[in-house]
């Protein structure tokens, strides 16, 4: 099974033990990577992906499991020191932390009940590590764009504050990809069914703000 690092570290530990209790004879090899893997070439039975689902091969099956929301967050101390933006166009007056490494100038997409905006921003820090960005946000170093599923606990504990909560950011498609079941091993089929049953509720639960 191929799985992104974040999913392997946060979601799977909450459900895999239950599966192993039910099916103790099933052995699983987890390939933990954020890199895209050729499922058929690498003989992968199950692949979890987060993001676009447009690239799915015609010879593969995809099942949607849920959406991952993203939020802008900053520490209470940062807000007290630098203020809080009231509109996406004010973001460039702040230190912005992004996990997109592509360009020096980036486009962040926002939507509310009345309009859609494409806002050009220049990140202060770019990093592929969400853990690093979250730590920097906690340490008052700027406003970070993070998946809600990663920072939900800190938001509920008031250690991070959601910025521009009335504006929605693009959602990530949490989906599972696999070859047609006709050629799958029984162990693969039963684990796939388990993931399809458990993952949607887990994703929603881990994004609930109290």
Describe it for me?
It is a single chain. The protein has 210 residues and is of the alpha/beta class. 30% of the residues lie in helices and 25% in strands. The chain has 6 helices and 12 strands. It has helices spanning 5-10, 12-22, 76-82, 130-138, 148-156, 186-205, and strands spanning 2-3, 31-32, 47-50, 61-68, 70-74, 96-98, 106-111, 116-121, 125-126, 143-147, 161-163, 172-178. A 5-stranded mixed sheet has the order 9-6-10-5-11. The protein has a 3-stranded antiparallel sheet with strand order 3-12-4. Strands 1-2 form a two-stranded parallel sheet. The longest helix has 20 residues, at 186-205. The two termini are 33 Å apart.
Count of DSSP helices? 6
**Biggest β-sheet, characterized?**
5 strands, mixed
Question: Mean pLDDT, nearest integer?
Answer: 91
Strand content: 25-35%
Number of strand segments: 12
- Poorly predicted runs of 5 or more residues: none
- What is the string of SSEs from the N terminus onward? EHHEEEEHEEEEHEHEEH
Termini separation: 33 Å
- The Cα radius of gyration reads 19 Å
Shape: elongated
Structural class: alpha/beta
Going across the biggest sheet, name each strand in turn.
9-6-10-5-11
- The share of residues in helices is 25-40%
Protein name: LysR substrate-binding domain-containing protein
InterPro entries: LysR-type_TF_proteobact-type, LysR_subst-bd
Pfam families: LysR_substrate
Family: Belongs to the LysR transcriptional regulatory family.
